[in-house]
Write a structure and sequence with these properties.
Blueprint (H helix, E strand, L loop, with lengths): L2 H35 L4 H25 L10 H38 L22
Helix pairs in contact: 1-2, 1-3, 2-3
Length: about 140
C-alpha cells in the first residue's frame, strides 16, 4: 500500500472519531446547560442544542476532509507518522477552537437569558390642576 494512502486512512480513522467524541461531549453538556437556561421551554433548549451540534459537525468534518490532501513526499513509516501528527494536531487544535466558540455561544445565550429585564417606565403623574395625559 502507498504510504500516503496509509497516512490518509489513519488520519481519517483518528480525526473522525475525535470529531464525534467532541460533538457528543458538546451535545451532552450543552443539553444540560441549555435546559437550565431555557427551563421554561425545554423544546427550545433541545432545538438550539441540536442546531449547534449539527453546525459543529458540518464545520469540523468539512475541515477534516478539506485538510486530507497533502503534497508531502511520504516514503517511510517515520514520514507517515510525521504527516499524521501534523494533520491530527491541526484537527485537534481546530476542534479545541470550535469547542471554545461553542462554550462562548452557550455563555452568551445564558447571559442574555438570565440578564435582568428592564422595568417598564412608570406612568407620568400630572401636577395638581393639570389635565390628565391623553391615553394612546
Amino acid at each position: 500500500m502507498d504510504p500516503v494512502v496509509l497516512a490518509y486512512a489513519l488520519y481519517l480513522l483518528i480525526s473522525i472519531p475525535l470529531t464525534v467524541l467532541v460533538a457528543r461531549t458538546l451535545s451532552k453538556h450543552g443539553r444540560t446547560f441549555l435546559a437550565e437556561v431555557f427551563a421554561d421551554s425545554p423544546g427550545l433548549a433541545t432545538a438550539v442544542n441540536q442546531l449547534l451540534v449539527v453546525g459543529f459537525y458540518l464545520i469540523s468534518l468539512g475541515f477534516v476532509t478539506l485538510f486530507l490532501t497533502s503534497r508531502a513526499t511520504v516514503l517511510s513509516a517515520r514520514e507517515v507518522f510525521e504527516l499524521l501528527s501534523v494533520k491530527v494536531g491541526v484537527v485537534a487544535l481546530i476542534l479545541g477552537v470550535m469547542h471554545l466558540v461553542n462554550v462562548l455561544v452557550f455563555n452568551g445565550i445564558r447571559r442574555r437569558h438570565l440578564a435582568p429585564k428592564p422595568l417598564p417606565a412608570p406612568a407620568p403623574v400630572p401636577y395638581p390642576g393639570m389635565p390628565p395625559f391623553p391615553q394612546h
